[in-house]
Amino acid sequence: MGVEQKLGNMGVVTTKLEELVNWSRTNAMWPMLFGLACCAIEMMATQASNYDLSRFGMELMRASPRQSDLMIVAGRVTRKMAPVLRRLYDQMPDPKWVISMGDCASCGGVFNNYAIVQGVDEVVPVDVYVAGCPPRPEALIHGIVTLYEKVKGERIKDWA
Amino acid sequence: MMAKMVSLTIDGKPVEVPEGTLVVNAAKKVGVDIPVFCYHPKMEPVGMCRMCLVEIGRPVIDRASGQPLREEDGSLKIQFGPKLETACTTPVSEGMVVLGATEKVKAGREDILEFLLTSHPLDCPICDKGGECPLQNLTMGFGPGESRYLYDDKKHLAKHVPLGELIYLDRERCIQCGRCVRFQELIADDPVIAFSQRGRSLEIVSYSEPGFDSYWSGNTTDICPVGALTTADFRFRARPWELKAAASICNHCPVGCNLTLNVRREAVSGGKWVLKRVMPRQNEAVNEIWICDKGRLGYHFGAQNAERLEKPLVRKNGELQPATWQEALELVTERFQSVGRGLITLASGRLSNEDLFNLGKLTRSLGGKSILYSSMAGGDLTTQIGFAPGTNFADMGKESAILVVGSDLEEEAPLWWLRVRQAAKRGATLIVLNARQTKLDRDAHYSLRFPFGTAAAAVLALVNTLSPKRPELPESIQELARSSELKAAAKAFAEAKDAAILFGGDGMGLAETQALAQACANLLLITDHFGRPNNGLLGVWPRANDQGAWELGWQPSMNLPADLAQAQALYIVAADPVSDDPAYLNAFDGQKFVVVQDLYLSQTARLADVVFPAQAWTEREGSYTSGERRVQRYYPALQPNAALPPRVESPGSRRAQVLTGLRAELDGPQADFAIPAFLAEKLGYEGFVHASASLVFARLAAEAPSFGGLSYQKLAEVHEQWPIVGRSDLYYGGTTYENTQGLGVQLPLAQGGASLLSWPQVADFKLPKLGGIAFPITRLYDRGATLMHSQLLHKRIGEPYIILSKQEASRLKISQGGFVRITFTDAERSVVVQAKVDEGLPERVVLAPRSFGLPISGPTPVELKPAG
Amino acid sequence: MSFVKDTLDGVKATFTGLATTFREMVRPPVTIQYPEEKRPVRPRFKGRHVLKRYDNGLEKCIGCSLCSAACPADAIFVESAENTDDERYSPGERYARVYEINMLRCIFCGYCEDACPTEAIVLGDNYELSFTDRRSSIYTKEFLIEPVPEGGKATPQKVEPGIYTRSVPAMKDPED
Fold this sequence. Notes:
The structure holds 3 protein chains of 3 kinds. Chain B is of the alpha/beta class. In chain B, 26% of the residues lie in helices and 21% in strands. Chain B folds into 5 domains: 5-101, Ubiquitin-like (UB roll) (Roll); 112-231, Alpha-Beta Plaits (2-Layer Sandwich); 313-377 and 551-643 and 654-714, Rossmann fold, CATH 3.40.50; 379-540, Dimethylsulfoxide Reductase, domain 2 (3-Layer(aba) Sandwich), CATH 3.40.228; 772-866, Barwin-like endoglucanases (Beta Barrel). In chain B, the strands form 8 sheets. In chain B, strands 16-15-26-25-24-17-18 form a 7-stranded mixed β-sheet. In chain B, helix 8 (353-366) links the parallel strand 17 (343-348) and strand 18 (369-373). In chain C, 22% of the residues lie in helices and 15% in strands. In chain C, the strands form 2 sheets. In chain C, strands 2-3-6 form a 3-stranded antiparallel β-sheet. Chain C has a two-stranded antiparallel ribbon with strand order 1-4. Chain C is elongated.
């Protein structure tokens, strides 16, 4: 079910609409103010003037999931944190994206133990994984750019 | 009789050990580790490596009074030697004081290690021993940290020297401790490797053809304290610390050697768990710390490969086609139900106790008949007067007698050969009674020959000299019966406090072994050698769990081809009669319904209507009953399902499956005990379990009398064994694994075996005037399905052959290695095989190895012609 | 008069406050325009791994698995096999048939570099590692190995027997 079915196949119109929507999405994607561990320090640095996330349309981190499009899971997720993380994700309005920042969020990293979720993709669907322990701000930005590339490739017919 | 105890002090700890104990072993008892390289607890000390040097002091004795002198404070006056002494060659003495951690000792060890490392290549990164290497560990623990020698002056020697195709030698790494050479000479009795040259040119060489021609060669890689000897099988396949270990039991022969299977996940195999190597696991009552090369290198049939069956096959339109379990099980259920009494279940001793229990129970429920596929009979006797609980070859010594009849023990059950030989060395009277010469003769006190085909009569001849009730003896045995050596042997056997008989099937078929077992049982009964530890009858069975099958009531059929031909339905499990003997082909006429359950699509499976894929013993749990009647447990090492789960499996779906209790469809090979239970479930029978081997075993223990009271927990019990091996001190006993997963339990003897049996019927056996008689013999390396998957051994296995007498060879005008056409008159089959000539063989006798594709299950008339 | 004074004070205060703003207007910006402009990394920075080759093109890696043993995150997987002179990948008897690093597990600590007896694995400068699925984060030997240097040959090489017998390069005598 999607816009396409409602509009019918209108060829060039839907193509241009796709581009427009994807462009607007990539230029105003607001991440959630949400840090879990050491990776969060690097995330803050990314937001600060040296790297200035505002350049990517991420004007500021929103402290409310209702106003965010992007969840950056910055740090290891404990089993106790996992339901909270999922609730925050559920509270975000569609369309929404998830970046798993750093090794711990991506696959547990060095914490291969019972307390840590071995990859947040067990809890939420992850769009981009960023390697590093923690990743440099540049690496996070690289991840965001990767996400933008992915979003730009989204098709109308796949929209929910 | 207890040995005199001696008390001494080692590093301040008081110890009390029997007289004659070596200092190094006494230290081990109190937990003081004295490092060694050349000393091995299973071999006599030589004191070559000088690593075990310690300070030893002894009390000073006043020559005049003979009393020990005392210091002023009343303590004994101890005098230390001027030099360090070797702890491995010095026996303990009363009042001795051993110091193993003084500066002097430390300096001595540092110097020895520094010397050893001058010519060591230090290529630990690529060395297969790296990680479990005594030299590495001891250098880390006691080494000097740096060397004063010039690296540039290092000797560089050949690194890739094959001592035969199984074992490789790295000459650079060798520290010349001589453990391998001594093992081959003293324990394996195959002195095929030796030191050559001397000084720094000293090297290990093999002077046999093929190189390192011994069934025990793999053990040298275990006890080698460096990476000089490695097996071709494990060369560079993984690092030891990456391997996971699973306890297992060897399923090649009835000894039941304890194994450790080392597994690792492998990218090349698509991320599956892969069997990387087989290592011995210590069980001093079974295999000590050794295993033969067949067990070590012949495991590949149990590994996962492309030829393994993965799905059930059902014959549709004349072709075997893959089917679902559901479909196959339903078809078999329906057909078995309609056949009922006409069902014959044929299973071999390759199966575990649990498998045989469930199979037997299913067959009984249907009213069918279960038959053990075996070339040896007599198991009914071993269940009654077999080895009693507490029997251990290690306890047989001066007061014991061991009689080995009709068995080429090293070929049939190598570890028993080793243990019988050691018992003989300890002083046990070893009587070898055989038709031909075997390796065991070297250690025998009485080595007796009987004419081919008269094994039972020969045992009766022994009985004759002891018993007032004299059985009739055939003509051909009279000469042996009159010999004084036989009489002496019989006397020694009767007078020994403990006596055991090992009987095999060398040159015999089912009927002959039945008679032999009966004769042996009579000998034990009249000499009263049964029902006690270290007494009794031991069958050298062809397969691992034949004894277990007998204990569970399985018996071979004296006329198997006829039985099979009469059956309306066949359920053949872990047996391949068709490739053993084409005579069985008649049984597969297309009329009857045939179900085969196996690992591979064997010749028999090709003729079946339904084929069930079974799990190998590496993939599942189970237990075997060894010939010594010890029930031992094995554990799964590999994942049972050869098919991998789909690559992307979302965690959510997995969880949902667990929560909703959805049972996945049966997929992939199933355990041999589970398949009959599935069938029973469909047939509506009660009391079958398929969920796990331990549950089946619990039922077995409840229903089979001899297994009463046993459980998997009991089988997993361990106690401390001596020598202590396989811990962090790998230098001491080698890389054999410590046994932490169970030593097994010996079954109690069945009731009602104590009365004298009837004498077996022994007809005179005469060799024909024309043609010849082929006698089956067993070779350790045969061409059976369980060994041909091990590529490495192919060269050792060789092509099919027969052994001829000198006269026969000259009549046929062939020399050693020539080809002959042998025609099996009864089977109307002829094949061209290589001929080997044995000078000691009587005329008209042909020896044909089993499982080499020759249709031979007992003495068979043959005709020989030159090939071509 | 207090009105005038108050006004002047207000103007002054405004300018005092805005001085920072105006000063920053003329100062060059500190922001690094990351994807276009990259800040050079420090010499000891630890980024994505590179597997090195000798000048003749043979791989330095001998498949010893010590990196994998040293790895605290269990990110490295090595499977070795035997070299022959007809098919030679590295000097000596052993080479890495499979070499994989899971970049998402790796914490870039450099222990593998320390453990390597042949200096085959080196942590490079690349930190741009983001993936849209976890599988693509596993870098195989083909990804990791550096290109064949000029004058060298690709592996496997066919070499004369008896030259490359030693896995670990000959060590110099240690100097105090």
